[in-house]
Each structure stands twice: as C-alpha cells, then as structure tokens.
Amino acid sequence: MSEDLFLKIIDREIPADIVYETDTVLAFRDIAPQAPVHILIIPKIKIRTVNDVDAEHTELLGELILAAKRIAKAQGVADQGYRLVMNCNEAAGQTVWHIHLHLLGGRALQWPPG
Length: 114
Ligand code: AMP
Prior knowledge:
Low-confidence stretches: none
CATH superfamily: HIT-like
Order of helices and strands: HEEEHEE
Number of strands: 5
Strand order of the largest sheet: 1-2-3-5-4
CATH class: Alpha Beta
Oligomer: single chain
Distance between the termini: 22 Å
Largest sheet: 5 strands, antiparallel
CATH topology: HIT family, subunit A
Radius of gyration: 14 Å
Mean pLDDT: 96
Bound molecules: adenosine monophosphate
Number of domains: 1
Shape: globular
Strand content: 15-25%
Helix content: 10-25%
C-alpha cells in the first residue's frame, strides 16, 4: 500500500468519504468497513506508527480522541458503545504508515480481538 495514501486523502488527491475535519485532524469512512460504523481518524501531519509518537504530539493525540467522541455521537453510536483501535506495525495488522484511530460501532464487538 502507498506510503502516502492518507496524505493523499488529506490533500484531496484521492477521494474519501470525509465525515469530520479540523485544522489538525481528518476523519473519513474506512473503504473496507468491519462494522456498520467504521471511521478512520488521522492527524494531518504524518506520524508513521505509534512508535514514532513523541511528547510534542500529546495535544494532537488528544484531539484524535476528542474527534472520536464527537463522531461517535454524530453517527449515533455513542450511547450503545464503540471501539477505538490503533494498530502498530505488522503483527498488529497495520497496513497504512500514517497513524489512524479506527472507530468501530453499530454492532456488538467481540473481545478479545483476533
Ligand atoms: P490498519 O490495518 O490499521 O493500518 O488500517 C488501515 C485501514 O485503512 C484499513 O481498515 C483499510 O480498509 C483502510 N483503507 C485503506 N485504503 C483506504 C482508502 N483509500 N480510503 C479509506 N480507507 C482505506
């Protein structure tokens, strides 16, 4: 998968179903949804993996969670519940090298995940 896929979505070079945007954060529907609501929330700056997160990103990461809360409410899944997931590196299933928070909701989710 392209190293810059999500940067291309941020730059509107490839289309996405965008549901939320601020100066620092963008959120769009996952192209292969694993639940009725499956939205990816990303920072507009490139951070490859959670291993690359630094203290300077603390506020930005908080903005991802705040975005998730707002989106969950707007999508109607806040009260029933939803899951936030950030995969780090291959063993966890990361395939796009720009950190992204998965927001999954709209169905009962199993635990532990696979
Ligand atoms: P991960 O496996 O955690 O790296 O998640 C990457 C996610 O990006 C997967 O759920 C993909 O379905 C999703 N994805 C890949 N390409 C696109 C795209 N062009 N638009 C929206 N979602 C995408």
